[in-house]
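User: Here's a chain of 242 residues. Predict its fold as C-alpha cells.
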Amino acid sequence: MSSLIQAKDLEVNRQGKYILQNVSLSVGKKDFITIIGPNGAGKSILLECLMGTFMPDKGEIDKKNNLSIGYIPQNFNPDNSMPISVKRFLMLRKNFTPKELKSVSEETNISDVLSKNLSNLSGGELQRVLLARSLLGNPELLILDEPAQNLDIKNQLNFYNLLNQIYQTRNISILMVSHDLHMVMASTKQVICLFHHICCSGEPQTVAKDPEFISLFGNDMAKMMSVYQHTHDHSHNEKLND
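Assistant: Prediction complete.
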C-alpha cells in the first residue's frame, strides 16, 4: 500500500451515542496532519484506533507492513515514588545504540538533563524527553496527542518549532491532535476538523473558511486563521476521504 496507515468508515458507539461515525483518513509519507475539534469530539479515540490499542465497532484499518510508530500520549505523569533518571527512562526502550541516543538527545536539546530525575523536570523539558523517546528507533510515523497542552506560551512555541524542525529534517510523517489552533494551523500541512465525524479537511487556510469550522470555533478564530500564510515548500496531495 502507498499509505503508511489508512482507515475506512470507522465507527465507535457507546451507549447509543457515536464517538466516531464514518471516519476515513489516510496518512502518507512525509505528511503532517493535525486533527482539531472540541473536547469530546473523539480525537484521542481515533488515535488509539489507528495505533491498534482500541478496537472500533466497525471499519477497517490498514497499515504498511512493519510500520514503526513513535507516540507521545496526552497525559504522562512521572511517579515521584519511583525515582528514575532521564537517561535510564530512555534506555527502557530497546533496539537503539548509544550513538542514536546521543544523536536524538542533541536533536531534542535534552543532553543537559539526562542525569536529572524524570519527576524533577519542567514541563518543557519533560515534553522534549518524551519527544526524544518517541524518536528512538527512527519511526516512520510520529503520533502526538495534545503534546503541548500543559505548557506555557513560550514552551508551546519552542516545542512546535522543534517539532517542525524535526519534520523538515527527518523522513517522517506526523499525525497530531492539538487545541493550539493559532500555532499549528500556521505550520501543519493538512487539517482534519473532527466532531465525531470529519466535518471538513484540507489545507489550513481552506479549512478556516469552511462553514463547519466556523460553526465549531467561531468567526473570530476563523478570521485569525485566515491571516496565516502557509509557506511550506511541498506538494499538497489530497489524502482524506470525508
